[in-house]
């Protein structure tokens, strides 16, 4: 049984949550520790008012932090007790989590916990290394455990549709100066000491297309920052979509938890994810995808999965002093 105190488990959970993925590495969360309970709150000052007006991606990001805290708390020897949206009068309070009964983490939990700081997002093509069907199925089971569905898109025609809609959305967003300015607000120049956003070493200076092409975010808009692409990384990888039956705030948080479980499981096997949510940020395109490709289920996250031969450095993280209320 655990030799760690509940206080130590709380500290470990908050420290781990710093490493959760978020849209543009905005890290849009704060934590309030009261007694033996953590309150996870949305930091709306970090919301993207143009690209994420409804706050869907903000809540997905916070959901990844919640799953990270759950995993860390189990690794510390306590079963987490979680309440989602516990107070209707405080909509910014997304969840509370506290250590419950003492428990002994199983091997899969330890594996996930070991990937919290190692996992990182990829922003280019992948090496031409196929992912076994059995492994992709294990990722789908991981998402299902958190209340979402991860569907690998096997039809080449459907992959082409998703690529074309991603290209269309990217083209429209590139013409919107407000959107582009919001995007590069989170693109960091070389040598930046900021503890959020996407540093220049983590996005390509020039996009190297895959086939079919899923364009990357244009973080290098109007400047020459960015990294050179890795030779041989031009494969698309496995295209997959996370969906939910509804589109509530609860389901956005569940999507984030499912996403982080999938990402940590993938990272443990040397697999990274590249995200392409451009089409999901356009209401008409998202609704088209829901009706025509996903049988009425709401698409929450579009990604490519594959093997990347990069150095694996993660993004900067804000210090705890900025996150604790």
Automatic annotation (TrEMBL):
Pfam families given in the database record: Nitroreductase
Biased composition (Basic and acidic residues): 203-215
GO molecular function, one term: oxidoreductase activity
Alphabetized UniProt keyword annotations: Flavoprotein, FMN, Oxidoreductase
SUPFAM superfamilies named in the record: FMN-dependent nitroreductase-like
InterPro entries given in the database record: Nitroreductase, Nitroreductase-like, Nitroreductase/BluB
Keyword field contains Membrane: no
Stretches the record annotates as Disordered: 192-215
NCBIfam families: Rv3131_FMN_oxido
Protein name (record): Nitroreductase family protein
Species in which this protein is naturally found: Nonomuraea fuscirosea
